[in-house]
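Annual report, structural modelling task.

Input specification for the flavin mononucleotide complex:
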Amino acid sequence: MTASFHRLPPIQIGAICIDPPLLLAPMAGITDLPFRTICRRYGVGMTVTEMIASRAVEQKRPRTENMAVVGEDESPVAVQIAGSDPDYLSQAARWAVAHGADMVDINMGCPVKKICKQVAGSALLKDEPKVAELLRAVVAAVEVPVTLKVRTGWDQTSKNVAQIARIAEESGVQMLTVHGRTRAQMFQGDANWEDIGLAVDAVTIPVIGNGDVVDGASARELVRVSGCAGVMVGRAVQGNPWLMGEVAAALRGESCPPPPSNEERWAVVEEHMQRLATHHGEFRASQLVRKHVVWYSKGMLHSAQFRGHFQRLRSWQEQRDTARDYFLSNGQVLAHVA
Ligand SMILES: Cc1cc2nc3c(=O)[nH]c(=O)nc-3n(C[C@H](O)[C@H](O)[C@H](O)COP(=O)(O)O)c2cc1C
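The model returned the following structure:
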């Protein structure tokens, strides 16, 4: 399916409007509340929490509770759950709604071995009756819209994304996101956007296309090739929340906003660090900033030296001061070690 468009229209699901139809991909260990809050500002139309295992919900661990915290003005937002037992999954869905989820998203795309062994995540794609059973149970359990995120199938020989899409629609799912890779591909090779189109053609519910969007042009190409109603972006936004401004503008048919100045970049890095410390506590935040801050430095002067140096820092104060000197000098501070 190919579709030409000037401005991709908002997606309406009941009373919920996703405008622009641009979603931040759920990424475990990355898209927590601090990062979602920052990305949202640049034009994301909907956010999704990291995946939460339905069994973990029952154990009531503080870390699980923390993962389901949504921002005061973070709406629309989905809490993503995973599992293979209809009762646990329904219970987790009700818990998600109690935590403020506008929608409940079910993960049937996770390729991680530990999850697949429990026949959850993408392993479920091999068992279509089970998919229907789980989706129906969750749809019946909550009043809010239920959405689903999948891959295109288990492997090259068993791609069943069109059939899964039909099952989802018949079960009452109101929006489907397709990552254009099979489980066997993990993150290798290119995402197949034509395969996303197979789901688009099979159903009337909105289908969100996902996989390998890296800029405004690739977002528009994904829509053109697949005919998807919206776009989800993941890895390319790590350390680059401004990318969401570029993709949002492209989907509206507008020109790309200018890149951030050094001062703007540092202001966002500093805010991100502060939000991580508030949300997770300084100890955990100090571990998390090692990847985030290094991602923000990608493409800047002497970023390899900065990465090596920053990873060795232990105290929060040192991390903060080192990052500030690096970003505000646009990397020049490391000129002497280069
Ligand atoms: C580190 C990491 C963690 C992820 N965690 C989740 C997750 O919790 N739930 C989910 O549905 N997908 C998860 N994904 C998959 C992404 O949501 C997305 O489908 C995938 O990265 C492809 O999109 P991209 O090419 O824009 O990154 C994760 C991906 C990465 C790289």
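The radius of gyration is 20 Å.
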